[in-house]
Amino acid sequence: MRADRRRFLKAAGAGLGAVSLAPTIVRDAFAQANVIKVAAIHDLSGGLDIYGRPMVDCLNYAVEEINGAGGLLGRQIKLISYDAQSNIQLYTQFATEAATKERVAVVHAGITSASREAIRPVLKRFNTLYFYNTQYEGGVCDRNCFCTGSTPAQNVDKLVPFTLKRFGKKVYTVAADYNYGQITAKWVKKFTQEHGGEVLATDYFPLEVSDFGPAITKIQAAKPDFVMSALVGGNHISFYRQWAASGMNKTTPVASTTFGNGLEHQVTTPEEHKGYIGSQSYYQELTTEANQAFLKKFLPKYGGTTKYVTPLAIQSYHGLHLWASAVKKANSIDRMKVIEALEANHTFSGPAGKTAIDPKTHHCSLDVYIAEAQNRAFKVLESYPQQPPADTAAVCDLKKNPNENQQYVIDVKT
Q: Which fold has domain 156-280?
């Protein structure tokens, strides 16, 4: 009798517990159903975290803005952020998890081209929309992918003639030894020759290289008018320090397609980077009303972790707002409906100016700026409004061939 009574009380207690938990389960299920999940996959640790952390801060801020204005379609956005730890295998793992387990509406992800090409096929296979918000070498042709960062036809095309005129006709190129550096170096050579200059030599360096002594000796012997850098990542910052330590910064100027993307101007001293010339789609020093309004709100909140807003970070901010406004236009998070909305002359105007999606390439027309590094900041020297992604447009037409799914290696004839 006592044993039966104990069993009865235990069963009754379990039943009451289930009843008491039921409202919580319902609330949790409702909460999950009432959010729109968005994934971010970036390097928040490892050698590329100098790029990833500001990008995620700007994505978080964009989500806060959208949610604060009422969200999307009556629902709040939930950002799920993954740290790929500068590990390509983790990019693939997290992209699969975001698409299948979390069933996110869109993924904003990737820094290097290797990371992009690791996850782009995964997201295509699982029909998950993908935004790549990083400056890169161009050529991606995939209807499921939107690229908001600048390509060589936008920034290198402006940087090379400016520096040839400013410094002289003899160029020595140093570049990261992967897709971005290799292809960008070809564009540097093409634009240099078209403007009457000469590339004396090009040296490539793996991302883990941090000793540039032998390379600097070679550059000294070549006697260029200036060095063009397409170096990438935390290890490559060593080049700028060693360049200054050798005294070469006092005699041979440096220009770069990447300097500032990873806060290099914050890490190096004012003397080390004085006079460096760059070309990007955004600089924090832009005096436009839109940029100043953004900084006034963003920096008090995120200035502890993002002391300077990079071009990659601001294009991540633009990228999320482009997607969100397309969701509103489509009145749906359905992937194809959002893609069609993005292809319908879709634009977003923000801190970097206007970002306008080109429906043929899924790349963007961008405002481009040339700037000079001074005292851990940049002085904007020239601006070029709404530069089209002409390099990718030469090989990609998604309106004519919507099933394209590859990265073209653009034939850069030199």
A: Rossmann fold (3.40.50)
Domain ranges of the chain: 34-150+285-365+390-407, 156-280
* Residue 414: both structure tokens together: 């030199």
Contact 352, 311 (CB under 8 A): yes
Q: What is the CATH number of domain 34-150+285-365+390-407?
A: 3.40.50.2300
Q: How far, in Å, CA of 132 to CA of 119, rounded?
A: 10
pLDDT tens per residue across span 215-253: 999 999 999 999 999 999 889 999 999 999 999 999 999
What are the angstrom distances between the C-alpha of 25 and each of 13, 30, 107, 327?
18, 8, 28, 29
Identical topology for domains 34-150+285-365+390-407 and 156-280:
yes
Cβ pair 268, 240 in contact under 8 A: yes
Paired tokens of 74: 């009556």
* pLDDT tens-digit series, residues 342-396: 999 999 999 999 999 999 999 999 999 999 999 999 999 999 999 999 999 999 9
pTM for the model stands at 0.90
